[in-house]
């Protein structure tokens, strides 16, 4: 690819980092900030345009910690383009680099908690994502490869709002479902509602997430090899929670039952779903030192290898690319937490929450301790009591942390997060790209 002029005289194209149905994504060098960024380009002559919608949603979701930072949008003779924060590897690529193409339970849970939050944040601004899949989540690149100022090495962001749809009206009311809708999304992860042409709602993004969890843990989905949507739908219908969750911790069954209980209009209980994953995490004895699969400690060369307590978590981007795994086994069944005092459990839970949500307000976390995280049977009973609606919220309201403002300043200097819905696409016709 030849580039005669940097985009808008500012962004110099370096290399292609992604290709999707809607456009191409490039890594660019920002001559102004001297930092790398990502640019998504969509040809102006495309019949179906998705970038305008994507930009609108991205700008609305800027306050979410799980969103990539909007930088600029513009147009030249050939392309509409969106400049945004450069993220790291997407989760699909990362998974495929693991042995057996699986993530460990710990990694799945850590990512899962963040993915639920990311989806919740999209829903909060009034949109459904409608294409939840691993390649639409990417890791935020940690500065200096260390958790810093609210970043953690595994912080994952949701991307690609090209298929998003507003599910509430401008008055904040739920849009009435249409009688029939065309298929949207990616067949492998689409909910059965989507296959059946039913109007999608918040629950359907969570169905896709559930399928993703299975894929993360098992390395594939039962309908992996099928190509036709109709065949995929047929197999999907055969696999209920019994088929898919039988070898998994029982919270996955509870997860499944919750989304299964949701009607079109129901708001999913995101906190409850996050809590289910955190419960497993604690029960299996994972803690804040538990590494992601792509992190590694160079044990042979580590100066403190004889004392595991001295070993600090480190992000190794090479490991992320080469697929190095951690030392956790999926079959690890011991429950360390169960043997400790309540105080210890509280401390543990705080730490875990800090890890999932860096810089979380500790006072808020303390409120979350009212339920013993190990009393999963109680929660299951509570869920069953509320069959006609979302289960009771067993966790105290979890306020959103306003760390994002700080993070934005840190990443983007003075870039403002304009959340207005009106799009102000800059006409940049002077800029010429030759492919
Ligand atoms: N901001 C970003 N930083 C780094 N990589 C990115 C960024 N945005 C997208 N990518 C990479 O490009 C890939 C494709 O991006 P995206 O999903 O937005 O394109 P798309 O055309 O909508 O794709 P699809 O048709 O698969 O939905 C992503 O999976 C990711 O690997």
Automatic annotation (TrEMBL):
UniProt-listed PANTHER family: CASEIN KINASE-RELATED
Keyword ATP-binding attributed: yes
Region (Disordered): 364-395
Regions annotated as coiled coil: none
GO MF term list: kinase activity
Domain Protein kinase: 11-282
Transport in keyword set: no
Protein name per Swiss-Prot or TrEMBL: Tau-tubulin kinase 1
A Pfam family of this chain: Pkinase
Gene3D superfamilies associated with the record: Transferase(Phosphotransferase) domain 1
Keywords, in A-Z order: ATP-binding, Kinase, Nucleotide-binding, Serine/threonine-protein kinase, Transferase
Binding site for ATP: 40
Biased composition (Low complexity): 368-377
InterPro entries reported for this sequence: CK1_Ser-Thr_kinase (IPR050235), Kinase-like_dom_sf (IPR011009), Prot_kinase_dom (IPR000719), Protein_kinase_ATP_BS (IPR017441), TTBK_Asator-like_STKc (IPR047916)
């Amino acid at each position: 690819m030849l580039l005669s002029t940097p985009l808008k005289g500012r962004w110099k194209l370096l290399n292609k980092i992604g290709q999707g149905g809607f456009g191409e994504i490039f890594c660019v060098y920002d001559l102004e900030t001297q930092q790398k960024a990502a640019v998504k380009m969509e040809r102006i002559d495309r019949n179906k345009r998705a970038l305008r919608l994507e930009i609108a949603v991205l700008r609305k979701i800027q306050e979410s910690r799980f969103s990539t930072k909007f930088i600029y949008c513009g147009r030249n003779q050939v392309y509409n383009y969106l400049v945004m924060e450069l993220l790291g590897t997407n989760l699909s690529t990362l998974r495929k680099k693991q042995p057996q193409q699986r993530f460990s339970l710990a990694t799945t849970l850590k990512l899962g908690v963040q993915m639920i939050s990311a989806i919740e944040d999209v829903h909060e601004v009034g949109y459904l994502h409608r294409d939840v899949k691993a390649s639409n989540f990417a890791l935020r690149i940690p500065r200096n490869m260390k958790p810093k100022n609210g970043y953690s090495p595994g912080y994952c962001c949701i991307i690609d709002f090209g298929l998003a749809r507003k599910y509430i009206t401008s008055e904040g009311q739920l849009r009435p479902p249409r009688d029939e809708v065309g298929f949207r999304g990616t067949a492998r992860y689409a909910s059965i509602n989507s296959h059946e042409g039913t109007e999608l709602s918040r629950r359907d993004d969570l169905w896709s997430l559930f399928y993703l969890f299975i894929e993360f843990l098992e390395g594939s989905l039962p309908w992996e090899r099928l190509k036709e949507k109709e065949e995929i739908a047929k197999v999907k219908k055969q696999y209920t929670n019994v088929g898919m969750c039988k070898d998994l911790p029982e919270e996955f069954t509870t997860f499944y039952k919750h989304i299964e209980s949701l009607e079109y209009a129901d708001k999913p209980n995101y906190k409850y779903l996050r809590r289910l994953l955190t419960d497993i995490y604690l029960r299996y004895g994972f803690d804040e030192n538990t590494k992601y699969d792509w992190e590694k400690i160079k044990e042979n060369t580590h100066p403190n290898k004889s004392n595991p307590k001295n070993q600090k978590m480190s992000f190794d981007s090479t490991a992320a690319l080469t697929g190095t795994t951690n030392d956790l086994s999926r079959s690890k069944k011991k429950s360390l937490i169960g043997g400790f005092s309540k105080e210890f459990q509280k401390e543990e839970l705080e730490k875990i929450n800090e890890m999932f949500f860096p810089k979380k307000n500790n006072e808020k976390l303390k409120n979350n301790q009212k339920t013993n995280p190990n009393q999963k049977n109680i929660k299951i009973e509570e869920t069953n009591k509320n069959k006609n609606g979302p289960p009771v919220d067993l966790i105290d309201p979890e306020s959103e942390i306003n760390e994002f403002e700080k993070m934005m300043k840190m990443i983007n200097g003075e870039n403002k997060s304009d959340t207005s819905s009106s799009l102000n696409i800059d006409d940049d016709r002077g800029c010429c790209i030759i492919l």
